[in-house]
Amino acid sequence: MQNNLKYLIYWGMLSLLLGCSGKEESEAPATSKPGAENMATLNNEQIQNAAIALGTPQTRAVSSILKLNGKIDVPPQNIVSISVPLGGYLKTTRLLPGTHVKKGEVLAVMEDQQYIQLQQDYLTGKARLTYLERDFNRQQELNVNKSSSDKILQQAEAEYRSQQVMIRSLEEKLSLIGINPGKLSGEQISRSINIYSPINGYVSSVNVNIGKYVSPTDVLFELINPSDIHLALKVFEKDLAGIRIGQKLMAYSNSEPEKRYWCEVILIGKNLSPERTAEVHCHFERYEPSLVPGTFMNATIDLETRNAITLPEDAIVSFENREYIFLPKAKGQYAMTEVQSGTTENGFTEITAKENLTGRQVVVKGAYSLLMSLKNKSED
User: Fold this and answer.
1) Which of 96, 136, 328, 353 has CA atoms 20 to 30 A from the CA of 297?
2) DSSP secondary-structure letter at 348?
């Protein structure tokens, strides 16, 4: 009994010592070899299960595809703001945003008493001009025989010329509000005028209502001629060198990605935004009525073909927003190396790395298995 008790005490002390030792070891900081966190190590069985295969990078001809986005825009010459040069009250209009209009079509009817006054001044002035012209001719005849003084002749001429200027000015004002002076007579004086559309297009905005008075600076309607719409794309500074005037591209919308539109680059912006982008303007080769200004569009541009180092897509893995490949080192060891990828064509991806990969062995199959091995190692 006494021997059993001693045995129990011995094993208890031994367990306590082992427990303390294990705790100290677990609390001690873990150490690793430099770069061990980027080194995956597998045994022969694991290599076989992961189907690890090696290969060398290949030089291939790749044509880079630049993906861009932007929106449909309208050049300033195709946007028309409609106003009334002399102001007035809006009598009638049928326009709503989106209404299609034709050139010469009546957009609205305005009325104001100043229109009446302007027509009255013109007709009255025109009648007086006839009188002054006759008086001037008469004074010229009288002055030939010195029956009239030069002063009277000069005065008659000055009044006649001044009246001509005034009549010409009134004709321009009448034309400005859409009244033809040549067809105006005392029986045709009107208190209203018509506002006509100067283009074919549609109404983008209506800023007035019936009965409202508008001044000459107020915009009643805005019209858009969509026949010359273009595509404004945002291009980053680093990609501008690959774009040139006359280059073809394919555009499509998010709502109808299967419907493609051919465009041509017509202008490359020279000013960079704070985001380091410039605007590239493209012209649609064929006008499509379904394309509405302001619509967001995507586009792809085929850049010039070049030779580049490529690897199969399976050789490149992504982790924490970076891309990597695995290079074999010692037996069963693979180093994870950061790279940058470019264009992908026919299952091969263009890559660039800090170290020269020409002729080097690279893991072309099983790269994701190696990445998972490293992640599990780091979690342990």
Assistant:
1) 96
2) E
Identity at 127, one-letter amino acid code? A
Let me know if domain 36-74+229-380 sits in CATH 2.40.30.170.
yes
Question: pLDDT tens-digit profile of 133-152?
Answer: 999 898 888 888 777 788 88
Of the two residues 199 and 304, the one the predictor is more confident about is: 199
The rounded distance, in Å, linking the Cα atoms of 284 and 287 is 6
Give the global pTM. Answer: 0.56
**Cβ neighbours of residue 364 under 8 Å, at least 6 residues apart?**
53, 54, 55, 311, 312, 314, 315
Torsion, CA 265, CA 268, CA 273, CA 276, rounded to 10: 80
Question: What is the 3-state composition of the chain as percent helix, strand, coil, each rounded to the nearest 5?
Answer: 35, 35, 30
277's enclosing H/E stretch is: strand 277-284
Residue identified by tokens 């045995």 is 7
The 10 Å Cβ neighbour count of residue 123 is 17
